[in-house]
Amino acid sequence: MNTLYNDIESICSASGIDWERIKGKTILISGSTGLIGSNLVKALLIMNRKLSLNATVIAMVRSKEKAEKVFADFMADTALKLCLIPDGVENCRDVEGNVDYIIHGANPTSSKFFVNNPVETIETAIGGTRAMLEIARKKNVSGFIFLSTMEIYGYPKRGEKVKEDAVGGFNTEVVRNCYPLSKQLCENLCFSFCKEYGVPARVARLTQTFGPGVEYNDGRVFAEFARCAIEKRNITLKTKGETERCYLYTLDAVTAILTILLMGESGNAYTVANEDTYCSIYEMAKMVADEYGIDVVIEEQDVASQGYANTLFMDLDTSKLRSLGWNARVGLKEMYAKMIEGMNC
Could you tell me where the DSSP H helices lie in 34-177? Predict the structure, then answer.
């Protein structure tokens, strides 16, 4: 707890966020037991206590048992309210009391889930976003932010810096595309609610994000590399590792989301990434291997059937977000060190 507290306090205090804007306000967060959502809840509660903001955080959760585990150190905090939605966010029609800000982050994140459950992926994305936007409209919120993904940019050309207007096209016959296509439609739904009903909606397009809080059995590649480092076994790549992208530390994601929510312009999307982390999968594997005394082995397989995205080159341009005063603070090596420390706890 002390490590997390100090990390949140250090990064959030230096973020330039105008915390006074949430003084006495109520923030509703969906997907609050997920990696990003849980860090948002914890960061808001810690800064609320530190700055005496008298804010309230409503964490939407499907499982009270999981929430009590994730927020074990915060359950006694009267600023935290749990909102149980056992039937999922897509079936939530209202919440009790006043709501000033909404952060909508509930969504599946596993590629295997997208391939095996494409209908559920689409229904959760569209239904959940519609439900949260309706609540935002009903409550007349001051700010709404939808957590989207870098995947909506499609497959940019190598060497091309990707800005917010570079939205990609997708083959609708490919089931795996249920995820980026549904995210694109959710974004448009947000902007449509903004124009037609005046909901102050914004979008954060996040790159792959990790740090403390990543579960040990997480199926994503960065978690596998961390497990290899912990267990002192070689990293085995199923491809040549040619995909190139940026990454982001969890608490840098938190400060970016809050910056966009409080200072971003309604009806706009913002790319969220640490541009300094841009590298290939192989380069990242080699960095981890060198740092923790293991090797990288390539054993190529047909990974398309397993739900992995095609090779891509996602060199994200975050200048629009940085113009709001935000900057990423934690680099790739430190991200891994903090994630591995968390996994070892």
Answer: 35-51, 64-70, 111-116, 118-139
Residue 40 belongs to some domain of the structure: yes
What residues are paired with 61 via a beta bridge? 84
The total of other beta-carbon atoms located within 10 Å of residue 177's CB is 19
Helix%, strand%, coil% for the chain, nearest 5: 45, 20, 35
| Parent domain of 48 | 2-212+247-275+316-329
Task: Classify strands 274-280 and 244-249 as parallel, antiparallel or unpaired.
Answer: antiparallel
Decide: pTM greater than 0.85. Answer: yes
| Residue 187 pLDDT grade (very low, low, confident, very high; cuts 50, 70, 90) | very high
Torsion of CA 25, 87, 111, 319, to 10 degrees: -20
- Under 8 Å between Cβ of 307 and 188: no
Structurally, the chain folds into a number of domains equal to 1
Assign residue 150 the CATH number of its domain: 3.40.50.720
Phi and psi for 13 in degrees, rounded to 5?
Answer: -65, -30
315 in Cβ contact with 244 (< 8 Å) = yes
pLDDT one-digit tens code per residue, 44-69: 999 999 999 999 999 999 999 999 99
Residue 183 lies in a domain: yes
Q: Provide the Cα torsion 257, 261, 262, 268; round to 10°.
A: 110
